[in-house]
Amino acid sequence: MTLYQPFLDYAIALLQQRLDLQPYLIPEGFEAKSAIVGKGKHQDEVLTTSYGYQATKLRQIRAAHVQGGNSLQVLNFVIFPHLNYDLPFFGADLVTLPGGHLIALDMQPLFRDDLSYQAKYTQPILPIFETYQQHLPWGGDFPEEARPFFSPAFLWTRPQQTEVVETHVFTAFQAYLQAYLNFVEQAEPVTNSSSLRAIEQAQLRYLRYRAEKDPARGMFTRFYGSQWTEEYIHGFLFDLERKLAMATTE
């Protein structure tokens, strides 16, 4: 059992329980990919598996799970709403490297500086954030350019002990995901054309930023080569731009 498998199992079970979950097409060649890294006694297999789902209000629910021995475990789990909902994104980046754990959990806002949006989507989850912050203190430096994409309830922490990941991080992940699905349940479709345009622009802004700055790019390139990596990032992990382009040519 790898460190983040219970997170993935929990998320999929909860989504199946609460949503009308359907498969989301994973492009060929991305369901699973492995590589051998290191030499001699230090050789390890790195396996990356991908999961994709969709639901009535959610365009893409996807996970990338990287398993590379004790010192490399990653789960990137993101939910993108359909473009006619003003829902935030759900984002969980759970990373274990030789130097320790890097944990980022958030409901990433479409409109961070809009006070009514904050009241709707950030205020209700601040108590959850505050509950876990005492066990999961702020992880320090964070790129200035990334700040607009995160909410005031952004849980960013670098726990030293694996036990903290297995306990406090796991329960925080559960609480955030449950709260997110409550938002999804209550969400009403947006019909106003200028609001719809603003939502599409906000989603594209976020996806372009994430695709350009994806911290896993270097790691994937090292394991699987740059061609596979770029296609994985733009064709699966952050595929909205491509999907919209395809829709306009059909």
UniProtKB/TrEMBL annotation:
Q: Which GO terms describe its biological process?
A: phytochromobilin biosynthetic process
Q: EC annotation?
A: 1.3.7.3
Q: Which Gene3D superfamilies match?
A: 3.40.1500.20
Superkingdom of the source species: Bacteria
First-level EC class = oxidoreductase
Q: What's in the keyword line of the UniProt record?
A: Oxidoreductase
The GO molecular function terms of this record are:
cobalt ion binding; phycoerythrobilin:ferredoxin oxidoreductase activity
Asked if the record carries the keyword Oxidoreductase, the reply is: yes
Its catalytic activity?
(3Z)-phycoerythrobilin + oxidized 2[4Fe-4S]-[ferredoxin] = 15,16-dihydrobiliverdin + reduced 2[4Fe-4S]-[ferredoxin] + 2 H(+)
Question: Belongs to which family?
Answer: Belongs to the HY2 family.
Q: What does this protein do?
A: Catalyzes the two-electron reduction of the C2 and C3(1) diene system of 15,16-dihydrobiliverdin.
Name of the protein in question: Phycoerythrobilin:ferredoxin oxidoreductase
Q: Which organism is it from?
A: Allocoleopsis franciscana PCC 7113
Write the lineage as a comma-separated list: Bacteria, Bacillati, Cyanobacteriota, Cyanophyceae, Coleofasciculales
Name the encoding gene, please: pebB
